[in-house]
Design a protein that fits this description.
Strand 9 and strand 10 form a beta hairpin. The chain has a 9-stranded mixed β-sheet. It folds into 2 domains: 243 residues, Spore Coat Polysaccharide Biosynthesis Protein SpsA, Chain A, CATH 3.90.550.10; 44 residues, no CATH class. By secondary structure, the protein is of the alpha/beta class. Bound molecules: uridine 5'-triphosphate (UTP). Uridine 5'-triphosphate binds next to helix 5.
Length: 301
């Protein structure tokens, strides 16, 4: 079985849910605590053993390419000033030479079309697909667990997690079959079903391992919902030929493509930082307990 060596990051979306913030700045470059959203997703892929990072970009996204490049002047200045800790961190986050590729989607015709744009860079091998909007907080990288499952099942894998049963109409939902190693067989994939029609409340959360046959399917894929070329439509056709397995992820997922998810991610990641936990926690207590800032000082006077 071929190892999963490459990961695709579709970053060509317009980010309309996050306007005006995303008018000039790609939403993938908005920061959660002190790293851009896209860095979290690339770190997750690296932890899973991915060796090559493929970005499908679009207009106004060039800064993503710069972010993953070496910044000589900055690195030299940091070294001269003895800022070794920050320099070391930057270097550890940096992909090596030749480990990144960038292609342009040119027109945002949908996620399925963005994935298809990576066909030549991926070639004839299985690949990981990570939606960069979705960032995960868990002890173990979600993709790493999927790669481990893949070593036993092969074929195609999607990560899923529970949603509110009343909200299935917002997601791609899967049907759950027999257990298969640390995952399960997928018996159905339904795009945005009404709660009454949903086979489960397990939604596809933005992490996939797909076989390269998806590219020839997407090549001829008609436009679907929202007049876009939908990945889900392509996966449904791929499932007619190859099995799909589910990995039930149990950590947190934040949809950083929406302002609410992005704020939640900032709070959750800040609370995980030793140097910030106390201060942010106190602010949350203050606001939720309606304690007014300065009330302690006044009491002492
Ligand atoms: P979204 O629908 O969440 O992204 O697509 P969007 O279109 O940027 O968001 P809104 O609704 O306008 O706010 C999921 C992922 O697919 C990428 C997006 O960048 C995002 O990471 N995508 C989507 C593309 O790369 N190309 C597309 O044509 C559409």
């Amino acid at each position: 079985m071929m190892k999963v060596r490459k990961a695709v990051f579709p970053v060509a979306g317009l980010g309309t849910r996050f306007l005006p913030a995303t008018k000039a700045i790609p939403k993938e470059m908005l920061t959660v605590v002190d790293k851009p959203v896209i860095q979290y997703v690339v770190d997750e892929a690296r932890e899973a053993g991915i060796e090559h990072f493929i970005f499908v970009t679009g207009r106004n996204k060039a800064v993503i390419e710069d972010h993953f490049d070496i910044h000589f002047e900055l690195y030299d200045t940091l070294a001269e000033r003895g800022k070794d800790t920050v320099l070391d961190r930057l270097q550890r986050l940096q992909p090596g030479p030749g480990q990144t590729s960038f292609t342009r989607q040119q027109v945002p015709l949908g996620l399925g079309h963005a994935v298809w744009c990576a066909r030549d860079l991926v070639g004839d091998e299985p690949f990981a697909l990570l939606l960069p909007d979705m960032i995960m907080q868990s002890e173990k990288s979600c993709l790493k667990a999927m790669v481990e499952l893949y070593a036993h099942t092969g074929n195609n894998i999607v990560a899923v997690q529970e949603c509110d049963p009343a909200e299935t109409h917002k997601y791609g939902i899967v049907g759950k079959g027999a257990d298969a190693h640390s995952g399960f067989e997928i018996t159905a994939m339904v795009e945005k079903p009404k709660p009454a029609d949903a086979p489960t409340n397990l939604y596809i959360n933005g992490r996939y391992i797909l076989q390269p046959e998806i590219f020839s399917i997407l090549e001829n894929q008609e436009k679907g919902a929202g007049n876009e070329i939908q990945l889900t439509d392509g996966m449904l056709r791929l499932r007619e030929k190859q099995p799909f397995y589910g990995y039930h992820y149990r950590g947190r997922t934040f949809d950083c493509g929406s302002p609410e998810g992005f704020i939640e991610a900032n709070v959750a990641f800040a609370l995980q930082r030793e140097d910030m936990r106390e201060r942010i926690g106190r602010l949350i207590d203050e606001i939720s307990g309606d304690i007014h800032p300065g009330s302690e000082i006044r009491a002492a006077e």
